[in-house]
Amino acid sequence: MSFQPSPLRLIRGLRFRLTLSYAIFFTLAAAGLGAVFRHTLENILEARTREALVQEWAALKGYLHIDQRRINRSGPIWFYDREDPDESFIVARLQRIYLLADAEGRVIERSSMYRSIGIDSPEQIREVIRGEMPVWRIRDDPDGTPFLIRAGVIFDDKRTAPYYVAIGRSLAPNRDVVAHFTRNYVFLAPLVIAAGCLLGWFLAGRALRPVKDVAGAAQRISGSNLSLRIPARGAGDELDYLITTFNRMIERLETSFQQVRQFSADVSHELRTPITAIRGQLEVALFTARSEEQYREAIENAMQDVERLSQIVRALLLLSQAESGQLALQLSEQDLAELVREVVDQFQIPAEEAGVSLLAELPAACPARVDRIQIERLVSNLLSNAVKFTAPGGQVRVTLAPAGAWLRLAVEDTGCGIEAEHLPHIFDRLYRAPSASPDAAKGFGLGLSFVAWIVKAHGGTIEVDSVPGKGSRFQVTLPVAADDRPVERLVPARAGAARSASQ
């Protein structure tokens, strides 16, 4: 199914959601930063206004002189050089928003602008004089313009009588600056957010491109096209990890498909051979046999092929049950030394026919709680492989030794050995390592899969050491008392020369 973008799919897409997240983040960040900047700007401007009023207060104390004897008749005296424009300007600024009152709260002198913002009440004046500390207030005129007022106490020339003085400055310029900043910020912030969204859309698309490549590759993959791989980006990030994991999954699928195809070919060949032989023998007997002996011989040969066919079907069914978890262990107390000895005795005749010396080093007794049938199958499979791949004149040695709560069973041969590149796969289902031995093509590669499952089901481990041309050594370590637990499904593992079947 091809990917056809649509508005609904676009909205539901990860790229859109990432971009929307960017937009929400940028919007909240811009709003938060704007509020912080605006508040900071207001504080800075107000602090500067306060500083200016403090300086003007210091100047006022130098220009304003109060004579207690004549204050009620002519008011205070402003000492400054009227010919000096700078001093004239300073005094004019001081008198622009200005109030002078005595200790009783009576207003002695005030500016018209101060009157517009409201004359201080006698109680407020007396409270400031009693406190002798400067007081800051913000007042609005009838037009709503705010003014910052600094009120405090000064003394007459003889420093005997306190007087209340208040000066102020308009905060309208500060408000205009803040309003100008707000307008500019509100105008520029959407542009920045839009640019951030476009950048986020681009970056999200670029970041998700490997994901689309993975999805596209997954759509193109089929049973006949498992060689497809996605090249890594080399960034070492999560997407590279995803690509690597995906490629490894495809590699495992390719290996599994190859094994299944090989299995299908092997099954077809192995089933076709006995069926063809049976059919041929019966046809020959039907058309050419004339005596009872000829019919009997044909039937006996057909029965041998039928038995071989039954063994193949039983092996496949048993492995399928084991891998699906349907085959449960039947644990009981067994003498493992006696059990192994019986299996070794069964293989003495096949070993002699193959010209192989079969030796066993077993203790007098080795009690263990195991499934007898499965352990017999485990030992039989290991011995069968050892005898099969050992040339005439070679030797197969079986050893069993208890080790505390564990026991160790080893099967060692002097056969053809296993190449290093095949060791990680020998326990995989249906895997058969190439060999120069003429018997290498026999079987389905199921024996070691059974061995691995049996070891894992008993909670043990199996390790393999092999040198091509010198032989192989399989060592199984099992607990003396296995647990009554459900048998886990066998999952073929990739390993090196030493492999733990319980991991």
In short:
With 503 residues, the chain is of the alpha+beta class. The protein has helices at 7-12, 14-63, 71-74, 85-96, 112-117, 122-131, 172-220, 238-288, 292-323, 336-346, 348-353, 372-388, 447-457; strands spanning 64-65, 77-78, 98-101, 107-110, 135-140, 146-155, 162-170, 331-335, 357-361, 367-371, 395-403, 406-413, 461-467, 471-479.
Radius of gyration: 50 Å
Tally of separate helices: 13
**Span between termini:** 39 Å
Order of helices and strands: HHEHEHEEHHEEEHHHEHHEEHEEHEE
Alpha-beta content class: alpha+beta
What form results from the Cα inertia axes? rod-shaped
The percentage of residues in β strands lies in 15-25%
Main beta sheet strand tally, sense and closure: 5 strands, antiparallel
The chain-level mean pLDDT equals 81
Poorly predicted tracts of residues: 485-503
Q: What is this structure's SSE topology?
A:
Elements: H1 7-12, H2 14-63, E1 64-65, H3 71-74, E2 77-78, H4 85-96, E3 98-101, E4 107-110, H5 112-117, H6 122-131, E5 135-140, E6 146-155, E7 162-170, H7 172-220, H8 238-288, H9 292-323, E8 331-335, H10 336-346, H11 348-353, E9 357-361, E10 367-371, H12 372-388, E11 395-403, E12 406-413, H13 447-457, E13 461-467, E14 471-479
Parallel strand pairs: 9-11
Antiparallel strand pairs: 1-2, 3-4, 3-7, 5-6, 6-7, 8-10, 11-12, 12-14, 13-14
Helix pairs in contact: 2-7, 7-8, 8-9, 10-12, 12-13
